[in-house]
Amino acid sequence: MGRVTVREKVLRIRDGSATERVDTLVVEEPLEIRLDGDPLSVTMRTPGNDFDLAAGFLVSEGVVSRGEEVTAIRYCAGATEDGSNTYNVLDVSLAPGVPRPDTSLERNFYTSSSCGLCGKASLDAVRTQAVWQVDGDGLRVEAETLTSLPDRLREAQRVFERTGALHAAGLFTADGELLALREDVGRHNAVDKLVGWALRSDRLPLRETVLMVSGRASFELVQKAWMAGIPMMAAVSAPSSLAVDLAAEAGITLVGFLRGTSMNVYAGRHRILLKKAHTAPSAATGGVRGPGR
Hints:
With about 290 residues, the chain is an alpha/beta fold. It has a domain at about 140-275: Cytidine Deaminase, domain 2 (3-Layer(aba) Sandwich), CATH 3.40.140.10. The protein has helices at about 50-60, 125, 145-155, 160-165, 185-200, 220-225, 240-250, and strands at about 5-15, 15-25, 30-35, 40-45, 70-75, 90-95, 110, 140, 165-175, 180-185, 210-215, 230-235, 255-260, 260-265, 270-275. The strands form four sheets. Strands 10-9-11-12-13-14 form a six-stranded mixed β-sheet. The protein has a five-stranded mixed β-sheet with strand order 5-6-3-4-7, covered by helices on one side. The termini are far apart.
């Protein structure tokens, strides 16, 4: 398995004075995902939980939705000239009868760590019909529980504390219990690793859970939540307009700017329980007030 962090010498300048020191950096390396021996995608990721990443990628793309549809995931040996294993190429075997992905849904062969949608043929290609529906679930979460999630997520981020350079995705119960957490240099990879963990643990669909992400709420992350059957997603930063549209379409509760005791609820507000019986509408929007964009 590849290293998650490396140590590098840096020149630190502060208040006009320069000193040399050793800094801890997060590793970013390519991972090639093959499907039954055929190249499918290359993504830049932080090594670790690679099998989860591949499995979650296939869930997000609508290729699989149940653990039994994947028969094996293995690293490919002989990835270098000397025959050694770089742990940067792995192959996923599908069960007999599982159809291969439609080419219109496949990513380009290369995707960056910052963009989970680079290479999509069109926006319409991303709007795949999810197997799991979330709009009829009974999940309800107290607002006070939601406000505790960012701190709980940060407390569980081991590599971030050393590098400050990783995104995190955490899966929580309605009571705020952390079920699983994954870190990666790419925010979409972190979510794929989490969804892949759920697939390989036969936990899909992830009903009655909350997805908490450390960055912004982008369209592709809401899509991944939908594909995994997650009814609620919260982010510490802003959502995009397309993320809000997709959340409303899917029936997902979308929370942004979750900081301190404040939050903005952009879709699915019926799942959030407030202690106060009445919520005063905003004069400008008629909605729940929160921190500005």
